Amino acid sequence: MINLRTARLFHALFLALFVALPATAFAQEESPGPLFMRDMLGDQEFFEPWGIGFDFYTMDQQYDIKSLQFDLPGVSLPDPSLLEIDNDIQHLDLKLDAWLTPFLNVFGLLGYVDAETVVDFSAAPITGLPVPITKLPISYDGTVYGGGFTLIYGSEQWFAAATTTWTEANLGGQFDSSVSTISVQPRIGLVRNRWQFWVGGMYLDTEEDHSGTLQLPIPGVPPVAFNVELEGAEKWNYAVGVGHTFSPRAHLSLEFGFGERDHTLFNYTFRF
Fold first, then answer.
1. Phi and psi angles of residue 45, each rounded to the nearest 5 degrees, phi first
2. pLDDT tens digits along 212-234
C-alpha cells in the first residue's frame, strides 16, 4: 500500500508532468542564449538564460558507521562495523538556474526530503540485553537546500558534462538529525535532433548524524542516549539517462543509477 508521504511525492511528480506537456506548443523562436559570451555560439540555437526547474529524486544506498556511542551499563556492541545499514530517500526540490556562458550553468535549490535509515543488528548483535534487537528504523524529513554548477562542452552531435552539487538538510523527526552531501555527476552523451542520450556516473559523499534518546522495545530497559555518525559505503555508481528539448524554453530528462547504489532523477525545466 502506498503511504501518505509517497502519495504526496507522486502527486507532485504528475503535476510536473502535466505542466510539462504544454511545453511542446512553444514556438521555436530564437533564444537570446547565455548571459555572457553569446558570440561563441555563432548561429547555433541555445537555451533561454534563466530556468525554473522541478526535480524528483530517489536513492537507496548502504551506509558505514564512522562512530557509535550509547550509554547503557552492562550492554555492548562488539563490532559496529558489521552492522548492515540501509538508507532510502525521496527528494523533491525547486531549482533556479542561469546559463552564465555557453559552457557554465549555475543553480540553487530548495526542497523537501523524506527518508528512513534502517540499522540491522543481525550480523553484529548487541550483548547484555535480555531480548535481542533485530532492526532499528530512524525516520526523518525536512527542508533541503543547496547549490552547484554544471560545466559542459560539445557539438550538435555529442556532449560531455559534469555537475557538482552541495546540499544541507534542516531536519525534523524523532532525533536530532543532520545530513550533508557533495555529489559530482560526469556524463558523456549523444545528441539526436532534440533528444539526448548519455552514460556516466555519480560520485556521492554523504554524511548523516543522529543523536538523542531512544526507548528500546524491551521491558525494564531505561531510555538510551546515543550518537551515531554514518557515511555512504560506496562513493560511485553508474548512470544512464535520456532527455528531450522541446524548445529553448523547455527541457525534460530522466536518469537511472545502478550498481552499489540505486537512484532515479526526474527533471523538468521551464526557461525564460
1. -75, 145
2. 888 777 777 788 888 889 999 99
The CB-based long-range contact list for 10-16 (8 Å cut-off, 24+ gap) reads: 12/54, 12/56, 12/92, 13/56, 13/266, 16/54, 16/56, 16/266, 16/268
Q: How far apart are CA 127 and CA 45, in angstroms?
A: 66
Sort 234 into a burial class: Cβ within 10 Å, 0-12 / 13-18 / 19+. Answer: middle
With b for 16 or more beta-carbon neighbours within 10 A and e for fewer, the 30-63 pattern comes to ebebbeeebeeeeeeebbbbebebbbbbebebeb
Residue 28 phi/psi, 5° resolution?
-85, 60
Judged by average pLDDT, the poorest of 10-19, 101-110, 185-194, 219-228 is 10-19
The type of residue at 108 is G
In order of their start, the domains of the chain are 4-271 (2.40.128)
Q: If we measure between CA atoms, which residue out of 165, 141, 161 comes closest to residue 151?
A: 161
The torsion of the CA quartet 123, 127, 130, 134, rounded to 10 degrees, works out to -20
Question: What residue type is assigned to position 92 of the chain?
Answer: L
Q: How many helices (H) and strands (E) does the chain have?
A: 1, 11
C-alpha cell at position 191: 545528441
What Cα–Cα distance (Å) separates residue 192 from each residue in 24, 61, 157?
Answer: 17, 33, 7
The pTM of the full predicted model, rounded to 2 decimals, is 0.83
**DSSP state letters, 131-183:** S---EEEEEEEEEEEEEEEEEEEE-SSEEEEEEEEEEEEEEEESSEEEEEEEE
CB hemisphere CA count around 69 (13 angstroms): 7
Pairing of strands 104-120, 84-101: antiparallel
Q: If you ran DSSP here, which 8-state letter would residue 127 be given? A: B
* Closest to 253 (Cα-Cα) out of 109, 53, 84, 78: 53
